[in-house]
Every structure is written in structure tokens, then in C-alpha cells.
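Hello,

I think I submitted the 2-keto-D-gluconic acid job twice by accident. Can you confirm which output corresponds to this input? Input:
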Amino acid sequence: MSKPDVLQLGPYPEWDMERLDGLFTMHPLFAVDDKAAYLAEHGGKIRAIATRGELGATRALIEALPALEIISVYGVGFDAVDLDAARERGIRVTNTPDVLTGDVADFGIAMMLCLSRGMIGAEKWARSGDWAAHGTYPAQRRVFGKRAGVLGLGRIGFEVARRLSGFDMEIAYSDIGPKDYARDWQFVENPEELAARSDFLFVTLAASKATRHTVGRRVFEALGPEGMLINISRASNIDEEALLSALESGKLGAAALDVFENEPDFDARFRACRNVLLQPHLASGTVETRKAMGKLMIDNLEAHFAGVALPTPVI
Ligand code: 8YV
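Support: Only one job matched these inputs. Its output is below.
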């Protein structure tokens, strides 16, 4: 029997490609210059899309693939998939939840510590010889015992908050309602109020059309000139223009960002800000987690074509 044809929207590590190539005929659209011509030639036989959290399975793409049955996302966030377009055609969508939760939470905590304690500048100070030439590096900001807010207490937000409790922090969170599994933490109705009572505000919202620009000017001003924003979710949850203005004017103290609009070609104004820590969408990027994500992404495709229950369906 011939192998199902799978359209690949982004690169995967070699360990995933071996299994993918064994099971499917892969079509690496991301590596093709003339995508329209490629789709015109191969689109008719494509039965699956393998994509990544940040790469769009748009309505236009879905419509260009008449034989499409399933979209498997390598990532927990599926906001880049047009779910309405998929639903209309009965196309299944899967993601890779749980396997990346711990690493993403670790990364948020690491960014908070790194930026607050000035570790990037301090490392350059030591490495460049400035320490020997100019003496002690300036004192930075404390983390433990401060107030933390977690916006979105899903799986990742919960793990962030659990880790923060180890830093003796006063923890509050916002979500659509109070969570019975979060009794030790204060529920706060809205993001502004949460920001006003936080020194560190973590954005861990699962992105959707409804969460677009949930965090904007009022939240940044409530967080204030001593406050820090940490975003390990999606750029769309934040009004990026308002964030840049708040950082540039000093109305917001600092921001640690793993996600941006137009990744990887993000707004160059961020590079000029001294009060930011910029990371290249790396929160889930450990070998352990990436292997687990790849396995789950492929397990979903394999299950679909074997006609058995999908391990982690979205729809
Ligand atoms: C990316 C992510 O998918 O899980 C998500 O939603 O954004 C990430 O894990 C990963 O970087 C692969 O693109």
C-alpha cells in the first residue's frame, strides 16, 4: 500500500524525520521556493499536514488541499490552525499537550531570574574583562518574596505558579474563574487588577481569537516602572505596539519575551530596548521535550491512518 502524503510546514529534527519518512511520503513545503506551484502539483494528494505551533494552517491552505484529513501540530498551541475551516470539512486537528509543560514553566522562571538578576549583562562583564578592569557589577533586583501574577492558570500557568511558590512569593492568578486546584493562590478577576498587585506578571494564556491583545497599555501601566512582564505564551495575547511604547517610555520596567509577532523577523525596536530579555521561542526546546513532542505529533498521524483513536485530539 502506498504511504499517505503529508505536507510539512516546518523543519523537524532528524530523529523525527527518520520516522516520518518511514511512515509517510513527506512534502517539505517550507523548503520550497515556489509554494503555489508546489501545491498546484501535489496539493491534490495531501492527506495530512504536519506543522509547528507557530506555523499557520490557514483557511487558504486547507482549501488548497481537497484530500486533507488531519492536521498534526508539533506544539500545545493550535492558534495558528484555522479551526473553523478544519471543522467545516471534518478535518481532525491534534496537538502535543502535557509533554512540554514542565520545560515551558522552567523557562519562564529562568527568564524571570535571568532578567531580574541581570545575568546576561553580568556574564558579558565577566567574560569581557570588565570585572577586572572596572570592578563590581551593579546590584540588581531581588526575586524571592516578591508578588507574582499568573495570567491563565492552565497546565503551564499552574506549573509556573507551583514553581514560584518555592521562591516564597505571594501568588495571584487570573482566569475565567477561580480554580479549585489553586486554593493557595489568590484569584483576581481581571488582568489589570492582577498586574497592579504583581511585581512579576507571567502570561500563560492559551491563545485564541478571544485572548488577542488581552494584555495592553492598562496592564503595562498597572505593572509599573518596577514591574516585569514574562511572556511564554503567544505574542497575540499582548498588544506588542503598546508593549514597545511602555518599555521605551519606562512606564513598564522590563519584559522577558520568548514569543513575538512575525517570528523570527520580530520588531527591531525590541533590540534597542535595554530592559528586555529576548529569546527565540525556545521555552519547549529541550532534547527530552522535543523528542516527546515529535513522538506525539507522529503518533497522532499514525493513529489516524491506522483508524484508531487519536492520542491527543483538539477536534
Ligand atoms: C513550538 C509552541 O511549537 O507548544 C507550542 O505551542 O509554541 C512551541 O512548543 C515549538 O517551538 C515548535 O515550533
